[in-house]
């Protein structure tokens, strides 16, 4: 959420942000409603002050022991005159109170519309973000690792996994519908291994490990910016006004909701492994094959809460991006980093870098990580603040990034580590998590 003062002072910038991000936002209407809200608030404040002061005055006029009453008598006023004045002021109060009630009743719809409009206002992108309509216009920053060449015909991850008895898409669909799967035997162990590797690397770098709820209150989804625009992507438990999360970013970022932290405790660095749920609404017919676009997966997420400082945010953005790259590098997977264009940014993101890993079955790089910074967008919604040394309160800056997500990462692991005989070599860094096993072979 943006500061309303910023929106008033920079309406054209906010309109451009909405256009660049392809987000529907009626800035002009918001400004109109905001003015109505402010005018109404001024009227109410004035009337409430008048009621308070007059109420106190009536009490003093009717209290013969009050200092004010004694002074009035000393000035020559009679008891009858004082009583008459008290009655007059009381009559004014009788007229004012219905006016306040009428204004309060009209205030509700205005505040409701204001709140709804504010939830549609996007964060302007950083100047370094390329202008573009969608992911096809993201800009490549660098490639890391060589794409290997094979002297035999490659199998895709589904064929490999099915023959090795480690992936069962057919029964996953039977149990839960399209875009579902089962991992078996070494497939399940490989899945757990990459998650544990990523978590161990993050803990070694000072991130605090967390176990977080994956079913949260809807206000947490609004607070982190996933609602209202992403509501159709979430699995909702309407009866309880709860939602399954699409990432551990949600509970991790919201962990300190409505708190005032101490500057000396920042930055706070958290990581968590969680199951993630996504409806993939609007993705009909897209990436329906295999493990690339599925309804649930597990992910290790990293979140940083830091001071309200742009340069510090940028430094931490580089740090979380490097953390993810380091995981891919120890896995020996070739990848590239792209600067995500405006049309592919979310509402609250100032800038996002995607990491795309080489996947032979896709004939190119496929997204496996996203590293985002939000400045104070999420913190304003969550009331997530800190107090500096001068006792001044600021909104925190928030950042997050995927450390690893599985089973999508199993696509390049299986396909790039496959052998001519249909077996798959286990990356050396994962072998300790599989009891020292070096390859996955067909079941006997």
Secondary-structure class: alpha+beta
Strand content: 15-25%
- The residue-averaged pLDDT reads 92
Tally of individual helices: 13
Q: How would you explain this protein's 3D organization?
A:
With 444 residues, the chain is of the alpha+beta class. Helix content is 41%, strand content 21%. The chain is built from 13 helices and 18 strands. A hairpin with a 5-residue loop joins β14 and β15. The longest helix has 40 residues, at 79-118. The radius of gyration is 30 Å and the shape is elongated. The relative contact order is 0.13. The model has no long low-confidence stretch (mean pLDDT 92).
Concise synopsis of the structure shown:
The protein is of the alpha+beta class and 444 residues long.
Question: What are its keywords?
Answer:
eight-stranded mixed beta sheet; 444 residues; alpha+beta
Task: Give the secondary structure arrangement, pairings included.
Layout: H1 4-9, H2 11-21, H3 27-61, H4 67-74, H5 79-118, E1 139-144, H6 157-163, E2 167-168, H7 169-176, E3 182-183, H8 185-204, E4 208-210, E5 215-217, H9 218-223, E6 236-237, E7 242-244, H10 249-253, E8 259-262, E9 268-277, E10 296-306, H11 310-331, E11 335-339, E12 351-359, E13 364-375, H12 377-382, E14 384-387, E15 393-395, E16 397-406, H13 410-416, E17 424-425, E18 439-440
Parallel strand pairs: 4-9, 8-14
Antiparallel strand pairs: 1-11, 2-3, 5-7, 6-7, 9-10, 10-16, 11-12, 12-13, 13-16, 14-15, 17-18
Helix pairs in contact: 3-5, 6-13
């Amino acid at each position: 959420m943006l500061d309303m003062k910023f929106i008033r002072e920079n309406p054209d910038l906010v309109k451009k942000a909405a256009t660049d991000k392809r987000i529907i936002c009626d800035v002009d209407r918001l400004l109109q409603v905001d003015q109505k809200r402010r005018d109404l608030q001024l009227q109410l404040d004035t009337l409430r002050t008048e009621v308070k002061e007059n109420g106190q005055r009536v009490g003093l006029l009717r209290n013969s022991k009050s200092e004010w009453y004694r002074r009035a008598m000393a000035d020559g006023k009679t008891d009858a005159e004082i009583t008459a004045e008290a009655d007059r002021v009381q009559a004014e109060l009788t007229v004012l109170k219905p006016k306040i009630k009428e204004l309060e009743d009209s205030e509700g719809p205005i505040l409701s519309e204001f709140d709804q409009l504010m939830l549609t206002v996007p964060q302007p992108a950083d100047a370094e973000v390329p202008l573009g309509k969608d992911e096809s216009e993201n800009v490549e920053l660098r490639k890391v690792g060589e794409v290997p060449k094979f002297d035999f015909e490659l199998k895709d991850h589904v064929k490999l996994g099915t023959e090795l008895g480690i992936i069962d898409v057919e029964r996953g669909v039977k149990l839960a519908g399209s875009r579902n799967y089962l991992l078996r035997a070494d497939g399940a162990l490989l899945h757990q291994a990459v998650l544990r590797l990523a978590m161990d690397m993050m803990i070694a770098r000072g991130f605090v490990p967390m176990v977080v709820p994956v079913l949260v209150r809807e206000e947490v989804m609004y607070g982190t910016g996933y609602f209202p625009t992403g509501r159709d992507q979430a699995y909702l438990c309407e009866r309880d006004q709860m939602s399954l999360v699409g990432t551990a970013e949600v509970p991790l970022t919201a962990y300190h909701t409505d708190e005032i932290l101490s500057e000396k405790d920042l930055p706070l660095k958290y990581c968590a492994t969680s199951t993630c749920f996504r409806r993939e609404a609007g993705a009909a017919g897209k990436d329906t094959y295999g493990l690339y676009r599925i309804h649930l997966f597990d992910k290790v997420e990293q979140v940083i809460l830091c001071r309200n400082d742009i340069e510090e945010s940028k430094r931490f953005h580089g740090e979380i991006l490097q953390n993810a790259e380091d995981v891919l590098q120890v896995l020996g997977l070739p990848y590239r980093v792209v600067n995500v264009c405006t049309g592919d940014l979310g509402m609250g993101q100032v800038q996002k870098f995607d990491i795309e890993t080489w996947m032979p079955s896709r004939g190119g790089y496929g997204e496996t990580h996203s590293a985002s910074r939000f400045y104070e967008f999420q913190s304003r919604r969550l009331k997530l603040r800190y107090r500096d040394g001068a006792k001044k309160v600021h909104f925190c800056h928030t950042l997050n990034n995927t450390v690893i997500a599985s089973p999508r990462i199993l696509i390049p692991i299986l396909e790039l580590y496959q052998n001519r005989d249909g077996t798959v070599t286990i990356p050396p860094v994962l072998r300790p998590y599989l009891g020292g096993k070096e390859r996955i072979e067909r079941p006997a």
